[in-house]
Design brief:
single chain; mainly alpha; 6 helices; flat
Length: 114
């Protein structure tokens, strides 16, 4: 479990670094306050920013794999339990998301303009 999670820890750090680099390149971090003057456009721009998705996913992978690495290295049952419950939670959220997409397939297609 340790070796596999070290690989995921490195991948999570790389995804997080790419996301932060992309946000800095787009100057979201330095001019973010100036963009918040128009609430409608700025909130949508921040939520729909693909680099924010990279940052959130990279941080999630980085933290979960770090907990798994440290838990397996120190044989800490609390960290390993946190890791396993987090994986179960993510799996349940993915299943629920898939079911919701299947149930609301027609309204999603209409919203996308198909």
């Amino acid at each position: 479990i340790f070796c596999v999670n070290v690989i995921f820890w490195i991948i999570g750090g790389a995804v997080l670094a790419i996301g932060i680099w992309g946000m800095v390149e787009k100057r979201n971090l330095s001019s973010g306050v100036a963009k918040l003057t128009n609430v409608d456009n700025s909130v949508l721009a921040v939520v729909m920013d693909p680099m924010l998705i990279f940052v959130v996913v990279g941080l999630l992978i980085f933290l979960l794999s770090f907990c798994a690495c440290l838990g397996s290295l120190r044989e800490n049952t609390c960290l390993l339990s946190f890791f396993s419950y987090s994986l179960v939670f993510i799996f349940v959220v993915e299943i629920a998301g898939g079911v919701l997409v299947y149930v609301y397939k027609d309204s999603i297609e209409q919203a996308l303009g198909k």
